[in-house]
């Protein structure tokens, strides 16, 4: 049996200031690449020497060059950007201004979502396919475990579409179902009662819009965050509508929600089939929607696995452990 001989690839980066940003604080970006790809990266002046087996060394060089090109374009490199380059195949950069939000080019390898506070980019192939589906379909389902960016990316696309004038309002909703525990009587007015259930949606929204702007838009009803029950009887026209935690909607609630879709609107339904909090014997509306609507044109179903978790590496390990126990 032959043993692979490590090879050395030397990369030269002319701008020493950008090289510092490429390496990261205390070389944390370099350390992340070394750990993920099993290579050794040594800094010598304005050069980085990558030592590793052929495939891993080539991939590490690609990641470093891609991140440096990002810095040359005036964009920062954060740990999430390093993670994305490590997960993705080699991208072909595309000017974000050339991407038609409603007809994203399927051949484009890089997709960016512009919001007021940040530029959001998918970090896995499944996320990339999901974002394309959000651009291309009037009704999109995102199904998978926690931490895979289903709701986060949907809200980002909604904010981007609103800022570019494609929709007139953003409506974010989720069922007000307790996660396995009875909270009892909650004091306060209606908003104070339902806000604890809606907090994850507020968190996502505040990542993309300055706090004062988000608050003003909510006061003006340009952004609505409301429980699923409040959708009954409405026709949602020229709106970007997100239903989060859809596994906790009943079949009738899901039908009610989906039939709110009005002219010029986009609708996104996200959920995790492994976290149903409905009473025993009550069928999840997400399950029924998946079964009934899967073959209808213009409705997209996108699936995520633990490999798409971007929240924390331990989250993926936890999901795998529970799935393995359930399959045993």
Automatic annotation (TrEMBL):
Ranges for domain PhoH-like protein: 120-323
Subcellular location: Cytoplasm
Keywords: ATP-binding, Cytoplasm, Nucleotide-binding
One Pfam family from the record: PhoH
Cross-referenced InterPro entries: P-loop_NTPase, PhoH, PhoH2-like
Protein family according to the UniProt entry: Belongs to the PhoH family.
Protein name from the UniProt record: PhoH-like protein
Organism of origin: Limimaricola variabilis
Organism classification: Bacteria, Pseudomonadati, Pseudomonadota, Alphaproteobacteria, Rhodobacterales
